[in-house]
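Q: I have 249 residues here and want to know how they pack in 3D. Can you give me a structure?
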Amino acid sequence: MGAGARQRRLLAADFVMSFMWVWSSVLIRIFVHRILEYGAHSVEGEILRYVVSIFNMFFFAFMAKTTKGGSYNPLTVLADAFSGDFSNFLFVVGARIPAQVVGSVYGVKLILDTFHGIGRGPRLTVDIAKGALTEGLLTFMIVIVSLGLTEKIGHNFIMKTWISSVSKLALHILGSDLTGGCMNPASVMGWAFANAEHITKEHLIVYWLAPVMATLAAVKLFRLLMHHIKPEPLVPKETASKSMFDKSE
């Protein structure tokens, strides 16, 4: 498959997965609270919602593997772009992230047309500085976890996805009362666009600038750590002895 065909496949996958991701969160809430009729603050309902969310993340991880790189989160592709060449960075910023945003926007639009009064998406309940710090820290931690899992157990799909899913869920819970614990600028953009809040200072700083900067910081730190802990290559004894002999001559 040529580079152009691969890029088109990734763009289509990003659009579809982003569309499906915003729908999945709404369908999970409908399943737990409307169909099964658990209360909004029911402990059993919350536990069930978290369990279904983990299965949902497994499903999207499988889709990412099946599409060979498709993603619903700009931060995921940005982390790879920061580690890759400049042409890939331009493709991510200029094409893949817009495809994810458009997919999320159309997904939310269809949700609101289908289910009236379903909600307004994540809400910022603190000031901009605290919100940016919260989203930044959550993003920094999940990117570090994701990079570490890829480096250490990238070949083990089930274990990698399990640890990643539980980590995302835990961080989401930590930030849910402050910013929504999103760690996904595209899905937030879908709801913000629907509510005509996509160009506000709060949205741009908290849900875009802070996570993107945190992703860059996490990639830089991970590179630095891996450079320092990378083991030195072993030198064969014969080579070492020969080098010493050469020096003595």
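Q: Anything worth noting?
A: Residues 3-35 form the longest helix (33 residues). The mean pLDDT is 88.
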